[in-house]
């Protein structure tokens, strides 16, 4: 249990963040956002989601966004792809990586994607087979890894089971996700004790929401377990569909401030991220949802 | 370095919190706030400040507030007292404990109370002598224990020096204070490494502001050092005079949620605190400054 000296911040603001905002920003704003994020030094940016536009209308412009990005060779642009149709669209649009998502909660899986956990894995199989052929890295999200809005606490064994399946199917990394932001450091420790006994830390990422303000404490705990990839969202973009008015993903700038203080390298420029947090928040018509950005008001 | 099984939350909302709010709430609201806090199970409440009303007009009603509280025998009501005049007013008003404040930063001390650190300690001496005679416990705050808005980083040795002086002068507890909320867990660890080599954990409290969102991560670190008293402010009351729009003290409900998750006892009812956060925030005309209260919107 030693903290990493270098951490990868996996920016999910343009996808997970914007997808949960009430306002849909125009394509040029999305492109500008992604370009600002790459200029700030982020090397992993989830740029779009190729899901059915019927379900997520905020992401109907995914092709246009991908086409408009000023590509930076140091950056890997990823896209969420629930199935082979989405995968094909994503790759045609120039995505470097793709991501699939499963849930650790049966109830959430059924309500969110209308499939059991087992069926959802079967659905992804063609994506993974094709991606392997295409040599496209596939990331996986395991949602409700701590608490489910329908079932309550989720057993660490259930999370390990789904994560192991996804690794076995060929995913290079599994992002353990606190979808509703309800975990505390004790939950994080309990889960990592279980999962790390079977899956090495370098195949895991931690994806936390800051709904209950626990995100940084949870990340600090995960760092102590050697986790070195964290998902975050500039300006704390996004929200929580189960708690109107609540925070979304942990803010990139809040994580970065802590990592800087801990002497952990990221290659990301804090001031540029704060500036970007204000840029996108103004486009959305609300204040940034991060304490740091609010303290550094323009 | 083992975490405590029980923690004392020292509620500073009615004093440190309200003193930094733009709006001054009427006496009955202050009294109602304090009564709600004691009903929620808090046993240490800083209820008022007996400083010069010229400097802190928000606290000019300290006597009326103290006189109006529905006293709960389980609760210790404390008051900030910068000098013997303040001390006498506080004790006449029924304060169970008093608190003095010094700074670990010379520049901050000079600008904030117009005295060097050494002179400020000399000023408190009569308060401590009289309190000892009266058997009134005296708490001390050491402000700018991590970062000073004028000097930047403060050496842990400077903090230890002031804290040791205050203990030697008779203070039962020293609250190490991150006045501008700029510390990260690395700063907390560095400081506690130094201070705990000379002062036992049960003579220390940690008082953090959440300006940069680091408060819970810092508290988690302090818990790992065995610190068992934390200051907090219902609804995250207060602000930061050096960063308009920024957060104030760490919110009692955010700390409590984490402690509950960690299985650490406090005797405080989370739902009652959230309800109180909304009550006082509505009286102040703004939303609570805690993610938890926002997630549990009425």
TrEMBL record, chains A, B:
The keyword Metal-binding applies. Belongs to the HMG-CoA lyase family. Pathway: Metabolic intermediate metabolism; (S)-3-hydroxy-3-methylglutaryl-CoA degradation; acetoacetate from (S)-3-hydroxy-3-methylglutaryl-CoA: step 1/1. NCBIfam families: PRK05692.1 (NF004283). This is hydroxymethylglutaryl-CoA lyase. The keyword GTP-binding does not apply. Its EC number is 4.1.3.4. Coiled coil: none annotated. The lineage of its organism: Bacteria, Pseudomonadati, Pseudomonadota, Alphaproteobacteria, Caulobacterales. Residues 7-274 form the Pyruvate carboxyltransferase domain. It comes from Asticcacaulis endophyticus. GO terms for molecular function: hydroxymethylglutaryl-CoA lyase activity; metal ion binding. InterPro entries: Aldolase_TIM, HMGL, PYR_CT. GO terms for biological process: ketone body biosynthetic process; L-leucine catabolic process. It is an enzyme of class 4 (lyase). Keywords: Lyase, Metal-binding.
């Amino acid at each position: 249990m030693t903290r990493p000296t270098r951490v990868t911040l996996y920016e999910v603001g343009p996808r997970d963040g914007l997808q949960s905002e009430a306002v849909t920003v125009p394509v040029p704003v999305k492109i500008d956002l992604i370009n600002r994020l790459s200029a700030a030094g982020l090397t992993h940016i989830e740029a779009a989601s190729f899901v059915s536009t019927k379900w997520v209308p905020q992401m109907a412009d995914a092709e246009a966004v991908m086409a408009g990005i000023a590509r930076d060779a140091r950056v890997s642009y990823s896209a969420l792809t629930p199935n082979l149709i989405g995968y094909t669209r994503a790759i045609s649009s120039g995505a470097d990586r793709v991501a699939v998502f499963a849930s650790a909660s049966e109830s959430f899986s059924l309500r969110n994607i209308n499939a059991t956990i087992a069926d959802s894995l079967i659905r992804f199989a063609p994506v993974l087979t094709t991606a392997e052929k295409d040599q496209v890295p596939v990331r996986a999200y395991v949602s409700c890894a701590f608490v489910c809005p329908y079932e309550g606490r989720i057993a660490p064994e259930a999370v390990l089971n789904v994560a192991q399946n996804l690794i076995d199917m060929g995913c290079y990394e599994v992002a353990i996700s606190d979808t509703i932001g309800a975990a505390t450091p004790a939950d994080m420790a309990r889960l990592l004790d279980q999962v790390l006994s079977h899956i090495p830390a370098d195949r895991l990422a931690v994806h936390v929401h800051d709904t209950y303000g626990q995100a940084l404490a949870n990340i600090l705990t995960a760092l102590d377990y050697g986790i070195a990839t964290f998902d975050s969202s500039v300006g704390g973009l996004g929200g929580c569909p189960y708690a109107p008015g609540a925070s979304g993903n942990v803010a990139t700038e809040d994580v970065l401030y802590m990592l800087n203080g801990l002497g952990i390298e990221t290659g990301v420029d804090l001031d540029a991220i704060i500036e970007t947090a204000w840029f996108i928040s103004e486009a959305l018509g609300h204040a940034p949802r991060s304490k740091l950005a609010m303290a550094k008001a323009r």
